[in-house]
Amino acid sequence: MLVLENLKLAVMGLVTNKMRAFLTMLGIIIGIASVIAIVTVGNSLTTSITESMQSMGANNITVGLQQKSEETEVSESGMEFRGPGRQKEPADEDLITDEMLEELRAEYSAEIEAVSLTESVGSGTAKDGEKYANVSITGVNDGYFKTDELTLLSGRMFLDVDHEKGKSVAIVSNKLVNNMFDGNNQAALGSTIDVNLGSRYYTYTIVGVYEYTESSFGFSSSSEEDITTTLYIPLETAKSQNHSSDGYQQLTLVTSVGTDATQFLNQVQYFFDSRYRKNEDFQVSAYSMESMVSSMTDMLSTVSLAIAVIAGISLLVGGIGVMNIMLVSITERTREIGTRKALGATNGSIQLQFIVEAVIICLIGGMIGIILGVGLGSVAAKLLGYAAKASVLSIVVSVLFSMVIGVFFGFYPANKAAKLDPIEALRYE
């Protein structure tokens, strides 16, 4: 009963002084709204980036050739230090060979589903009279389409014979078909296109058309007609046109379902370290998208938390405002306090009355702040192009925090009110 009575008194006090109550709540509202809005935007950004990176193959392992760390140089004084070293082009014997890949697949057949290999030929323009399309020519093997699944609209993928004989066949995007064949996929199939790469010209026969999708991380100011899309050709064709040697500087391992990419990453690194131990200039480094996703998520979460803590300082300011108003309220209601104590109210009941009033102020301000914060965070996330994702934990913490602020900053004024001498209080004018 005592709690209900104090609740009624607190609500009546707020209703009587609506403007003062609102201004008291304002600091709490702004603080909680800021924290929730920042956390919502941060969560939305983190979730969107994580999902995008995972869709690119979070469990895949990228293996790349790189020059060994800086060379040791000796100064005139005899001191040794690490210098940047000269950049070197890898020789044929430095490259990752097909024999190494065969050994790797044989040793880890259960962990590796496919090996994705690519060879860039260059960027240029496919032309047919006045019609044109910008393309980036990339040679790929069958394993590539395990890492980057294409939605084939018409035609077929590459056949074994296309790879073995290095045929000049191509899989093109629907954007290219729109530009050069008026969007008719069937008309494009079997047709030949000439691609100008500056000083080089190549002719390809179209065997497939895939659906172009814009990268989640990419943005372009180019018009629809000028968008550069990938033109895929067999890996052996690309190597022949580049006059490349039989070796690779970079590749991707597609791990089997159920494989722990982090653990397998160490095994892959050890495999290549044992084969490049005697190579004085180059080494192989392996990394997974999963580790990058984890690092980026941690970084974004830390940044969001830091900004949220800074925004939370306004909650402290709001709490001080609550304490200030409660002290003013005690001064105004000195006679009321004296009357209640004269009628038998205990110090505990007086103290509880003002603590409950402070908690009510903070709780109502917290609720308004939560609604405002979720709304602002959702709008900001959508304006940035991400799906809004509010944090339930931050909402719960905000409600609890607003109550704690009410108790903490309401305790001193409540304690002061409880200690008032009833006789002196009744004499107060």
TrEMBL record:
<feature type="domain" description="MacB-like periplasmic core">
    <location>
        <begin position="22"/>
        <end position="268"/>
    </location>
</feature>
<dbReference type="Pfam" id="PF02687">
    <property type="entry name" value="FtsX"/>
</dbReference>
<comment type="similarity">
    <text>Belongs to the ABC-4 integral membrane protein family.</text>
</comment>
<keyword id="KW-0472">Membrane</keyword>
<feature type="domain" description="ABC3 transporter permease C-terminal">
    <location>
        <begin position="309"/>
        <end position="422"/>
    </location>
</feature>
<feature type="transmembrane region" description="Helical">
    <location>
        <begin position="352"/>
        <end position="380"/>
    </location>
</feature>
<dbReference type="InterPro" id="IPR003838">
    <property type="entry name" value="ABC3_permease_C"/>
</dbReference>
<dbReference type="Pfam" id="PF12704">
    <property type="entry name" value="MacB_PCD"/>
</dbReference>
<dbReference type="InterPro" id="IPR025857">
    <property type="entry name" value="MacB_PCD"/>
</dbReference>
<keyword id="KW-1003">Cell membrane</keyword>
<feature type="transmembrane region" description="Helical">
    <location>
        <begin position="305"/>
        <end position="331"/>
    </location>
</feature>
<feature type="transmembrane region" description="Helical">
    <location>
        <begin position="21"/>
        <end position="42"/>
    </location>
</feature>
<keyword id="KW-0812">Transmembrane</keyword>
<dbReference type="GO" id="GO:0005886">
    <property type="term" value="C:plasma membrane"/>
</dbReference>
<keyword id="KW-1133">Transmembrane helix</keyword>
<feature type="transmembrane region" description="Helical">
    <location>
        <begin position="392"/>
        <end position="412"/>
    </location>
</feature>
<dbReference type="InterPro" id="IPR050250">
    <property type="entry name" value="Macrolide_Exporter_MacB"/>
</dbReference>
<dbReference type="GO" id="GO:0022857">
    <property type="term" value="F:transmembrane transporter activity"/>
</dbReference>
<protein>
    <submittedName>
        <fullName>ABC transporter permease</fullName>
    </submittedName>
</protein>
